[in-house]
Amino acid sequence: MNESLQIRTFKRAGHIEVICGSMFSGKTEELIRRIRRAQIAKQRVKVFKPRIDDRYSEFEIVSHSEQTFPSEVVIDASEIYEKSFEAEVIGIDEGQFFENNLVEVCQNLADSGKRVIVAGLDQDYKALPFDPMPQLLSIAEYITKTLAVCVICGAPANRTQRISTNSDQILVGAGNHYEARCRLHHIVNTDGNLPRGTDIKIGKEKENAE
Q1: Which CATH architecture has domain 15-146?
Q2: Is the pLDDT of residue 164 over 50?
Q3: How confident is the model at residue 195 (pLDDT cuts 50, 70, 90)?
Q4: CA angle, corner 16, sides to 173 and 56, nearest 5?
Q5: pLDDT at residue 166 tops 60
Q6: Residues 194, 163 contacting (CB under 8 angstroms)
Q7: What is the chain's mean pLDDT, rounded?
Q8: Counting runs of H as helices and runs of E as strands, what totals does the chain give?
Q9: How far is CA 77 from the centre of its chain?
Q10: What was the pLDDT predicted at 6?
Q11: What residues are annotated to the active site?
Q12: What is the CA radius of gyration of the chain?
């Protein structure tokens, strides 16, 4: 009995990795670490950042610990797809600064067999979901939540405290505008008028209010 052997072939499966957390929690540092490891494995990599983020360097992603990696600046997420055909691993920094079409772009890249790594804030300074990061979290195969250190008490911090007077959701900045805070010491202040190093005693405030 002769039967032909059928060989099933599959294209390489892509996937999405999301690195999220507050400011100063090491998101970009972790992104750079993964991209460098991909390079060591002799994989073709490309890294992108939004044009709005020009705090430290125009053509590099830069962590707060001053680690750097060359990147390409794009205005819209659609450019990432157009410029990634030859890449095997795509890194995207500051995902929260892109429009919601970043989600579709990442889906299409992963569907085509690529590894997509996105780093970004999952919450804004009011501790509300920061689009499009929540949507990316829902479709990602791998999620890493990074934590900073609260400047008030030293506890693990997952929130970003704005200490300047600007109330726009998007305000590009670093230590001049933001601090890492834990849940207890994060103050939601829509006016943004918050002195640096302000401490709060939630239990005492509730007691006084009563």
Answers
A1: 3-Layer(aba) Sandwich (3.40)
A2: yes
A3: very low
A4: 20
A5: no
A6: yes
A7: 84
A8: 5, 12
A9: 14
A10: 54
A11: 94
A12: 20
The token pair that represents 110 in the structure block: 């992963």
Q: Could you tell me the residue ranges of all domains in the chain?
A: 15-146
d(CA 105, CA 107): 5
Residue pointed to by tokens 């994989």: 43
Residue ranges of the alpha helices (H) in 53-164? Answer: 78-82, 101-111, 133-139
> What does the pLDDT average to over 78-90?
96
Mean per-residue pLDDT for 89-106?
Answer: 97
The b/e string for 23-52 (b: 16+ C-beta within 10 A; e otherwise) is bbbbbbbbbbebbeebeeeeeebbbbbbee
CA end-to-end span of the chain: 88
Residue 44 has pLDDT above 80, yes or no: yes
Distance of alpha carbon 69 from alpha carbon 52, whole angstroms: 17
d(CA 136, CA 130): 11
Decide if pLDDT at 5 tops 70.
no
